[in-house]
Amino acid sequence: MATEIELKLRLDPKNVRKLLAHPLLTGTPSSKQHLLNTYYDTPELALRARRVAMRFRKKGWEWLLTVKSAEPASGGLAVRNEWETAAVPGVFDFTHVDATELRNFLEQHRDRLEPAFTTDFRRQAWLLPCGESLIEMALDRGHIAARGRREAICEVELELVSGRIEDIFALTRQLQAQINLHPAVASKAERGYRLYLDEPRQAFRAKPLPINARQTPVAAFRIIALGCLEHFQRNEEGLLAGGEAEFIHQARVALRRLRSAIKLFAPALPEDFVAAYGRSWQTLAGALGDARNWDVFLEETLPPIHAAFPHNHDLHRLRNEARRRVKSARHAIKHLLALKEYPRLMVEFTAAVHALTDTVDIPLKRFADERIAAHTRSVRKMAEQYDTLTPEQRHIMRLRFKKLRYAMEFMTPLLPTRGMKTYLNTLAKLQETLGLINDQVTAELLINEALGQKSATAAHGWVAGRHELLIGRVPELLAAWLKADPGLS
Fold first, then answer.
1. In this model, does residue 57 exceed pLDDT 90?
2. Interior CA angle at 244 toward 151 and 74, to 5°?
3. Predicted structure pTM score
């Protein structure tokens, strides 16, 4: 078994010549190959469900059988297990796979394997020394084909032949200084499956993260931070394609989770890392927040008001202005993602996360308990004094509840199961109501922003009534949360 460490970068075809003229490649010999790959799976796609990719590759006169694990990439960097051997096309011999469970799985399904999709591309490759490492840089151009559908390939892959992961990022920086190269998370196999299934683009939601008590706080943070980054990047395509509301929502949640994770693990992280990357996402997060606010206003807050007052002239103006603001907010997001600083931030952050080392000697379980306890004490104090809080303080309380929930979601594998499901459901209901209250407060601001001094009595009255109704539910929900026992020691 080999471990493949690879960073994938998307390249605009218009920049290919610029890449080939890069000083790093001047005078460096390259190899050229035509690579034709056929990926196989069972009719019900058992390999895909197992997160395994299997292909036959025609490489000149040679045929290779390759099995790869399909671990997700973050910031473009993927670390995957790979088994490759010379083969006869159509003969499924998995004796080279030294992972017994995986080999048995493949042999179990051998008789049902059939072609799913192909990738056909030309590769130009260079071996480049960088720092203490040797890195293969490959430029792939061609297409993926499945069931009569095709999708173009134009990407750069940087694979670590020997040395350190840090040097892949160093080489990427040198390339990005002159060319817009964008970290990509989807492998050719993943794109092939999507084409095979003709899957519509869907918003990507956060998934459970594999942390465990044997890890250090920094190791756990690395998994969580890269998971948040993947969460964001997998919604990026939807943002660029027009930014449907759910893509914006999920991208915003991803950045909120990431910033919360940095704050949660701050005691175990270098101060300069926290200072730099705790703020780096603010501009993009602000643009996503603005777009999300207008989406909620247009799609959730305004429709029942308009239904109640269908002939109100102010509401017609308000809806038209909201639509304009939604469109403008989406353009602002696309503009930020198109800036050269964005892909560079992705690479720099990924590099910085991988470079982190342990600075505190504390078991992860104890660290998690202490941090959750600190978050809980902070929000409990405000919850117990809710009746005396100002609107600004209640807003702060809402944000603290959100941070507590994120902290518990991150640390779920470390937490006891007794009472936890009930506790998290109670916390979720409370947070949902607090979020709806915030939507009404935001709606008031957006109405004033959209219409200025013009009247919108119906909208203001509706929002105020809804706000008052929701406020009345909070004491009961707070009391339920205060009584809930999460089973923590």
1. yes
2. 60
3. 0.91
